[in-house]
């Protein structure tokens, strides 16, 4: 295996009524789906602009939606299907797969709207002297995780979707004795207020919805 880096972007198919449902009813079902697509495309652009290695789009529930094929064409990324299970199980499986092919892996969620290319580059660089790198989220989760080796224990146990995910993960990192670089906190888009904030800050285009 070469000393290569991969960026994994986790995304769901932009299906009305199934994508970014917490943005409803502020956005219609179609509007929430378009928002989901816009967030995914922004995340991919950020990943490509970081210029730190291969970019992979990890798709849920599978890779069959035409939107994913469009992303592969437009951004030059490869498509990979997320596994079954909760988000922790899916991240653990993705890391296990990608770290068989790359020396360093940076994983982000498609809705991690505050992340910039420099954040991804900083996380990858941090792995030169750390076992892991994270970008915490304002809501108590995290936006980015970067690893040099599979660490399945990190993803087994946190109450996913709760405000304690980062605190629980940090405690697990300490218990495992992993050297961790914690980068500046950011935010993702879960609720209408987050969407409006991203629009105000110029991180998204209002025409997307």
Explain this structure.
α1 packs across α4. With 209 residues, the chain is an alpha/beta fold. The chain starts with a strand and ends in a 9-residue tail after the last helix. β5 and β6 form a beta hairpin. It is 36% helix and 19% strand.
Strand order of the largest sheet: 3-2-1-4-6-5-7
User: What fraction strand?
Assistant: 15-25%
Whole-angstrom Rg: 16 Å
- How many H/I helices? 6
| Order of helix and strand elements from N to C terminus | EHEHEHEHEEHEH
Structural class: alpha/beta
The first-to-last residue Cα distance is: 42 Å
Tally of extended strands?
7
Query: Which word captures the global form?
Result: globular
Helix content: 25-40%
Give the low-pLDDT segments: none
Mean pLDDT: 96
Largest sheet: 7 strands, mixed
What is the element layout, followed by pairings?
Layout: E1 5-12, H1 29-50, E2 54-60, H2 66-75, E3 78-81, H3 87-98, E4 104-109, H4 117-126, E5 132-136, E6 142-147, H5 165-176, E7 180-182, H6 192-200
Parallel strand pairs: 1-2, 1-4, 2-3, 5-7
Antiparallel strand pairs: 4-6, 5-6
Helix pairs in contact: 1-4
Q: What attributes characterize this protein structure?
A:
alpha/beta, 36% helix, single chain, 19% strand, seven-stranded mixed sheet, 209 residues
Task: Describe the structure concisely.
With 209 residues, this protein is an alpha/beta fold. The chain contains 6 helices and 7 strands.
């Amino acid at each position: 295996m070469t000393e290569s880096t991969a960026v994994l972007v986790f995304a769901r198919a932009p299906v009305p009524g199934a994508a970014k449902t917490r943005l409803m009813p502020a956005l219609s079902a179609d509007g929430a789906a378009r928002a989901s697509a816009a967030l995914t495309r922004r995340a991919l652009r950020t990943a490509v602009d970081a210029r730190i290695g291969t970019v992979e789009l990890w798709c849920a529930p599978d890779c069959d939606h035409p939107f994913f094929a469009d992303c592969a064409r437009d951004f030059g990324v490869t498509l990979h299907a997320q596994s079954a299970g909760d988000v922790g199980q899916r991240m653990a499986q993705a890391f296990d797969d990608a770290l068989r092919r790359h020396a360093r892996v940076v994983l982000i969620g498609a809705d991690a709207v505050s992340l910039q290319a420099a954040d991804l580059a900083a996380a990858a660089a941090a792995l030169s002297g750390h076992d892991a790198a994270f970008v915490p989220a304002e809501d108590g989760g995290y936006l980015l995780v970067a690893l040099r080796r599979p660490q399945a224990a990190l993803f087994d146990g946190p109450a996913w979707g709760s405000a304690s995910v980062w605190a629980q993960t940090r405690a697990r990192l300490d218990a495992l004795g992993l050297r961790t670089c914690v980068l500046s906190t950011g935010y993702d888009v879960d609720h209408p207020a987050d969407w409006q904030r991203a629009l105000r800050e110029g991180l998204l285009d209002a025409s997307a919805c």
